Amino acid sequence: MFEALLTSKHRFAPGAYKYWRFDIVGISNAAILLPEVKLISPQGDVITQGYKDNATAIGSYSASYLPSKAFDGIVPQNKDELSHWQFNGGTRNSWIQIWIPAPRDIAEYSIYMPLDNKYPPSNSFQAYAPASWVLSGSLDGTTWFPIDSQSGYTSAKWLEKVQHRFII
Questions:
Q1: Is the pTM of this model over 0.85?
Q2: Which single residue of 17, 35, 126, 127 has CA 20 to 30 Å from 88?
């Protein structure tokens, strides 16, 4: 597995939060998907582990692609494995969030985008990956504080490696 450490393009207001939300703009107008996301504490543990059922999103393509799939700890190898969140809402703007019981800080997060050799590039994970996003934190699920923002992701950039890490 190839891995590269990337620094955040924009640093905002890190802190301990109970709710973590990604507001996403997709590469494609057709769909947005996330195979696996991990939020990692300063101590190195995955703060979302065990809380996949606390994930919600703007919607899901079907019951096979629920938001919990983005936080289930399983990195699928192709889209047939169904262990990813997918939203086909006909919009480029979407969101996914997860709630944890006690406020926690994060030092980094990872987005896994497997190389899907089963499908042509126009129908792979990378074709429906996020182009840009804002990660925000909240204590109440209503008032959000931006933590990190990334932009300029293309299908080709997602193909560079499987795990994309972002330091807060």
A1: yes
A2: 17
